[in-house]
Amino acid sequence: MHVHYNTLLHCVYVSLLHMLSLQIKNYYIFQFPKYKWTNKTKDVILSSFFWGYMAMQIPAGQIAHRFGTRRLFVGCMLVNCIIPIIMPIVTYYGGWISAVLCRVIQGVSQACIIPGLHTFFGKWTPLEERGRLTAIVYGGQAIGTVFGLPITGFIASSYLGWPGIFRFYGLLSGTIAIFLWLFHADSPAQHKKISFDERKYIEEALGQTNGQKTLPVPWKKILGSSGMLAIIVAHIGNTWGQLTLFTEIPSYMDKVMGVNIKAVRILLSFLTFT
């Protein structure tokens, strides 16, 4: 799921190359709508995802803790199934404002995934295995980008055009939602197919008991910790640089360098390794 999350996040940048009225050499996509949006409008559309994403970060963790990750993850995937499929249609009739609204909704839904994952780790992974399993899951971000961007460029330059990108990832999100509903559970105790030995091992390793007391969160000490503040600043800087590159490079490569979309999708996937 983390692979799919990062794929959804980055592939819209390649899609916008085709939605805008750009001269893409050697490709004929005139049968699909192209929008003569200004750079300012394009930047608003690209950034609108993060309006919803930023606003939902802290509430998402509380929602996952209170209602469980199964319903949360399935809901997120369903939203990201419906919105991409209808986005080309609502953009055609409603203009760029409709595109912004769709992206804000996607941002709100995708903001729940990473906080939800940490709730999931707390319920399912023993401490001695958590570091390794967390690294594997977060490795899905790079995998999603490496495979997703070339696939996106291929779809965009095919007869499906840029609307096909949204439909493809919408259907993929719906498929993932079905798998999560069938095979995911909020905790080992709620999983119907887990073996008794595995459930016992996880619960004993985590100390999960019916009478476990919930301790208050020391928010004041957390927010006042110099180490915590350093991590926040470093994460902001890293994410700012990374997302600026992924947001602006497709347009730069097309407009300034004159590189066609097939080359752009490969170059963008290589950025993951830098």
UniProtKB/TrEMBL annotation:
GO biological process: monoatomic anion transport
Main location: membrane
Regions crossing the membrane: 72-90, 96-121, 133-160, 166-183
Pfam families noted in UniProt: MFS_1
Cellular component terms per the entry's GO annotation: membrane
Keywords: Membrane, Transmembrane, Transmembrane helix
Membrane protein topology class: Multi-pass membrane protein
Matching InterPro entries: MFS, MFS_dom, MFS_Na/Anion_cotransporter, MFS_trans_sf
GO MF annotations in UniProt: transmembrane transporter activity
Domain Major facilitator superfamily (MFS) profile intervals: 7-274
UniProt-annotated location(s): Membrane
SUPFAM superfamilies: MFS general substrate transporter (SSF103473)
PANTHER family listed in its UniProt record: FI21844P1-RELATED, SOLUTE CARRIER FAMILY 17
Protein name (database record): Major facilitator superfamily (MFS) profile domain-containing protein
